[in-house]
Amino acid sequence: MFGDNRKNSNNGNNAPRPQFVQSEPRLSTTEAYTDDDYAKRSSSAASPISPYYYDPVRLSGEGSPMMMSPWNQTTNSPFSKPQWSQSEEAPPQNSMIGSLVREEGHIYSLAASGDLLYTGSDSKNIRVWKNLQEYCGFKSNSGLVKAIIISGQKIFTGHQDGKIRVWKVSVKNPSIHKRAGTLPTLKDIFKSSIKPSNYVEVRKHRTALWIKHSDAVSCLSLSPDKTYLYSASWDRTIKVWRIGDSKCLESITSHEDAVNSVVCGNDGVVFSGSADGTVMVWRREIRGKGTKHVAVKTLLKQECAVTALAIDPSGSMVYCGASDGLVNFWERDKQFAHGGVLKGHKLAVLCLASAGNLVFSGSADKTICVWKRDGVIHTCVSVLTGHDGPVKCLAVEQDRDCDGGRDQRWVLYSGSLDKSVKVWSVSENLQHQRVASDCDSVPSESDGSYSSSRAGHNKRL
């Protein structure tokens, strides 16, 4: 499933160490770059023309825009031998400790739980790695694997064909994953199809059941209590599923373009990010046996697409990555006031993750920025390099080999369109460094929604 990548000696320690511009909270304003300004920034991409800027007239059903990339030269070899390369020396702070490579396809999704790592690709296979060794795998009938989420003994996978598949781990043999069904269930599809009122228009002259996604599932998110599953889709909707009985409780339609990300916060608050350039806040209300999500606020409205969302573990910060290479964030404790902008990437931010006081941003420029948060001040403490293609997905777990104490360490997994998964050791207590000339954090004085005029073309991921 992962293409061969042997350039794993570059671990981020050789990355340029740029100036870090630090400012006091809420003193400075936002900055909009012009296309000319953006073009002047040096790029590590193989071509000056980014393959992540999509043709707006292309139908999303034709496949993921990433399939048009120069890295998409996949030769599926489901029986090829996986490779694991690992450094024998003790890893320094913020460094690569190994690379998982399997000749199957681009990596689109990751999910980590304890000593298990699930990886999804455009080969339609889901591979399971245990202690960084291939453990087992299972395959869907169709649709590249765009999202994976773990809930106890259940694994949910979201696919390009618009389906959400449910898998169960065998009690007798944990290496066996059995297909447990799909969302929505066949029973619910049959019951809903009887009533004409359950059909909605999804495209011109085309209708479909409201409980089904009519386009690619781009993202999955679990509520903190694991009662509800949220699925975002290119069909412009977010669907809410009750895990207990697999019922679709609600279909939220408000975005004007593909929904690229959805994340659940505490107290029934949900965030969604779309290719229409907006980030919205929703509040879940229980009404009888169902739910109703009410729009609370629009945090962001801009021309370029929102591509990724993340919430820090405490739930106090909400982060948004976009196709302009910027990461915006908001403070929940201050009624979602705009906290600032993190500038560290030359191309689109494709994924975000957070652990402890760290935030990780993966980009089409092939790098991962590691940001350390102190209040609203974010310092880019490291730039991780080593991938030969865009960094498409991230997963992070606490380092179980760490003896605790003051040095909190994390294991970061990064999946790329170079067909590999890199494994990194990251320390939370790494002192502030100057890491990249383009990296800085700009706090904002805005108290409400934030608007940017910077153009971008990267719409659906």
Automatic annotation (TrEMBL):
Keywords: Repeat, WD repeat
Keyword Repeat set for record: yes
Biased composition annotated in UniProt, kind: Polar residues: 20-32, 70-93, 443-455
Entry-linked InterPro entries: JINGUBANG-like (IPR045182), WD40/YVTN_repeat-like_dom_sf (IPR015943), WD40_PAC1 (IPR020472), WD40_repeat_dom_sf (IPR036322), WD40_rpt (IPR001680)
SMART domains given in the database record: WD40
One Pfam family in the UniProt entry: WD40
WD repeats (start-end): 210-251, 252-282, 299-331, 342-372
Chain residue ranges for the region called Disordered: 1-48, 65-93, 437-461
Gene3D superfamilies referenced in this protein's UniProt entry, alphabetically: YVTN repeat-like/Quinoprotein amine dehydrogenase (2.130.10.10)
PANTHER family: F-BOX AND WD40 DOMAIN PROTEIN, PROTEIN JINGUBANG
Name the UniProt record assigns to this protein: Uncharacterized protein
Organism: Pisum sativum (Garden pea)
